[in-house]
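Aim 2 progress update. The chain analyzed this quarter is reproduced below.
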Amino acid sequence: MDNFLKNKFILADTLIVLISALYSFHYMPSGVAKFCVTLFTIVITLALMHTKQFYNDNKFNLKKLYTLFEIASVLCVILAVMSFYVNYPLIIFLVSCYLIITFTLLVAARIFYLLTKLFKRQKNVLIVGAGQDGKLIAEEIKNRPELKLNVVGFLDDNMNTIEDQDSSIKILGLTCDSEAVIKDNNVKLVIVAVKSRMDSDILTDLVKGIPLGVKVWRMYRFYEKITHKFLVSKMSVNWLFYDCVRKKALLYAYLKRICDIIASVAIIVITSPISLIAAIGIKLSDLGPVFFTQTRIGKFGKPFKMIKFRIMYQDKVDDNFDDDVTEVSADDKRMIPFCKILRKYHIDELPQMLNVLKGDMSIVGPRPVREEVYYENKESIPFWECRNWVRPGWCGWQQVNVNEPTAEERVGYDLYYIKHRHILWELAIFMLFTGKILLGKARGR
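Predicted structure tokens:
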């Protein structure tokens, strides 16, 4: 299942659960009890949905319906026991309302998705250029059946050479044959995947041959649309100038900073008991310092000290260790046993909220890297330094999509975020990453 589609389901369901809980429990008179019950209900509902593997695929059938019934049953038992201890009679009625509203909306949302999918007509796609770019975009389309797109074939002026090299490529003609090919195959979408700059003859053929109503996309633009990341190796300086070098409104910058401050303070307050336990456990392990700082690259390439809870024994701490690129195994002798759970649930990164308060980092943004990694990739990865046009983040778009990206993939996701970022989307990224943390599946750092 495509990660982006999966994320849309998770986000939609999270909003449904959030709205249902806020609506159902707002009748509780006690502010503290209301907050605790609402937060507990939201977390336990989403955790059960992930635990029961509700998002393994995008199918909605009787098995999924039964899974929802199981989740509702478990919730009933948990909340009934909770109501017994809370000693609040009205909570049973409120829980019943919550369950009815939540699971009715969840089922309705899935039925609506199935209906939109059922009535979505398949479109035929023609690709101009049968080289590496053409094959790449054809493969991406093939791997995403939910797009309802069918590649009918390619147009290429070097068809004989390409057919000899790769017989699997279906060449339908030359670029001058575009009009006839489009009509014969009922093509609704044309993707131009020509590697070099097109000469005037090819452009003329395409302009004359593509009827009105047929959409035309450049390959790298369409790749961005369906994968939600950039193909860095195909980007140009023109892209940087026209698409990315655009200042966001000052209102966005101020609003984002305010949101960062509010969110970081809230996270510090809510997680303070966990942080206190972590600090005591680390201190008692070998009487060494509780925190570990490491130089990372921030906005506009400015270095800063990123703070973490120390998870390794004091005599084993390696200043050059980078958990962005090096995965620590469960039996690593350098790690304090108590800290393995801190790492799994990203508790060791909670002190980074202080970096957010200082303004070195943001809640959402590209993950900061060490100086060595920054300068090494700057030389070998195109546009690597462009990640630092914004503040680095505690979590990011790359982290909710892929756990162990290559350097090029990381740039692709980060630049996609930089181009499309806005407050509501960043809130969605934060919610998705928080969900992965609660399930212990947020490995990307």
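The longest strand covers residues 149-155. The chain has 18 helices and nine strands. These observations will guide the mutagenesis experiments scheduled for the next reporting period.
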